[in-house]
């Protein structure tokens, strides 16, 4: 977590951690039931390398939630693989030149299997 703070990213709360499956990597990310996210919220997500993505939580008729929008681009660009550990954090608000920044800010980290 130290390197994230040095990069100016201050995780506030862990929303969820998940070991990725083949279908998560090659399709859409099925979210754990307890995930701390809001359905239909468009989130600005940063990765540990400075990349920025827009994800949206969608809900199936079954009630299960999944990640949409740029999820497939993210998995391709970061070379995500099945069995990698994904951690999803809500970022803390911070002030930049007197403005509050990151109202929908999130951070995603990926640890290789």
Give the gist of this structure.
With 113 residues, the chain is an alpha+beta fold. Helices cover 15% and strands 44% of the residues.
End-to-end CA span: 18 Å
The figure for the number of domains is 1
CATH class: Mainly Beta
Can you identify the CATH superfamily? DNA-binding pseudobarrel domain
CATH topology: At1g16640 B3 domain
Per DSSP, the total helix count is 3
Low-confidence stretches: 1-7
* Strands, total number: 9
Strand order of the largest sheet: 1-6-9-3-4-5-2
Hey, roughly how much beta strand do the residues contain?
35-45%
N to C succession of SSEs: HEHEEEEHEEEE
**Structural class of the helices, strands and pairings?**
alpha+beta
Outline, from the CA principal axes? globular
How many strands, what sense, and barrel or not for the largest sheet?
Answer: 7 strands, mixed
Q: Supply Rg.
A: 14 Å
Q: Per CATH, which architecture?
A: Beta Barrel
Give the overall average pLDDT: 82
Helix content: 10-25%
How would you describe this protein?
Residues 16-105 form the TF-B3 domain. One of its GO terms (molecular function) is DNA binding. With 113 residues, this protein is an alpha+beta fold. It contains three helices and nine strands; from the N terminus they run αβαββββαββββ. The protein has helices at 2-6, 22-26, 71-77; strands at 11-19, 29-30, 42-47, 52-59, 65-69, 85-91, 94-96, 99-101, 105-111. The strands form two sheets. The chain has a seven-stranded mixed β-sheet. Strand 7 and strand 8 form a beta hairpin. The radius of gyration is 14 Å and the shape is globular. The two termini are 18 Å apart. The model is unreliable at 1-7 (pLDDT under 50).
């Amino acid at each position: 977590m130290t390197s994230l703070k040095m990069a100016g990213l201050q995780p506030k709360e862990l929303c969820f951690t998940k070991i990725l499956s083949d279908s998560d990597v090659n399709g859409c990310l099925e979210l754990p039931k307890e995930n701390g996210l809001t359905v239909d919220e468009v989130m600005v997500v940063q990765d540990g390398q400075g990349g920025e993505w827009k994800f949206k939580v969608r809900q199936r008729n079954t009630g299960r939630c999944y990640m949409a929008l740029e999820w497939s681009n993210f998995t391709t660009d970061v070379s995500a693989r099945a069995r990698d550990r994904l951690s999803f954090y809500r970022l803390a608000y911070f002030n930049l030149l007197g403005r509050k920044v990151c109202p929908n800010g999130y951070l995603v980290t990926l640890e290789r299997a």
